Amino acid sequence: MTYEKRVTYEKRVAYERPGAHEKPGAHENPAPSGLAADRVAHEAGGRLIVDGITLAPRPGTTLGLIGPNGSGKSTLLRLLAGVLAPAAGVVTLDGTPLPRLGRRQTARRLAVVDQHATTQVELTVREVVALGRIPHRRPFSGTTPADERAVRDALDRTSLTDRADQSWHTLSGGERQRAHIARALAQAPRELLLDEPTNHLDIQHQLDLLNLIASLPVTTVIALHDLNLAAMFCDEILVLREGRAYAHGTPAEVVTEELIAEVYGVRARVTPPADALDHVSVRFLRTPPRQPGP
Q1: Complete domains list, the chain, with CATH
Q2: Is pLDDT of 5 > 90?
């Protein structure tokens, strides 16, 4: 990619700040509403896994994180969830840093669905989903009618009502994933973080799940590998490469043949949306076979 084109991508993720010559407070903005990260970084093994990421998804929208394996998607989600502490920068909810809010208050606002969530305890599906109500209960208190309604609704939304009394360990991989998403829904969050939630799901359940997530009145940050699903269901996309924000914008702005070649190292044909109800679609191309030498 040429320098000029690279600058175009970098401008998409740049956040301008007042210059040193300006008066203090001349351009002060109110604290961001909802979930936000300001230049967060995380280091592991002497290497920056996440390097200066800034984001502030608009309330009620879905932000997709895409990028190759090892680009920092899962680590960024853990930073946003408060599971990892940033080496630099800050993650906030309504302008308040997560450590100041505390774990219980954060859990009442923010739900997380990990990629490899598991348990060694023998629990039914209903009991797994009911774990989402813990942040809303006082210590040593029992379940309330509101808790029971939330669990029933979450089971129904994820089509797991008929599995409610079944052991979680007897579920298929896709059903386990849906159970963890039901647990997150029972938590009644305003922000929802999901790491590869479509793993282990067949096509129908992938589409059903993402339709459900897109319909929720919450702010969602979701890591996805499938570019077509990201283009179909995300309002905006943040592309990560080697821990840095490489591009940010709408799917039509970000998902281009040039970017796919630069970030993923593969060839693709990208078809633009035909109308306002359509979305960008990606068709990957085979690498031409090597010609035998003389």
Answers
A1: 45-284 (3.40.50.300)
A2: no
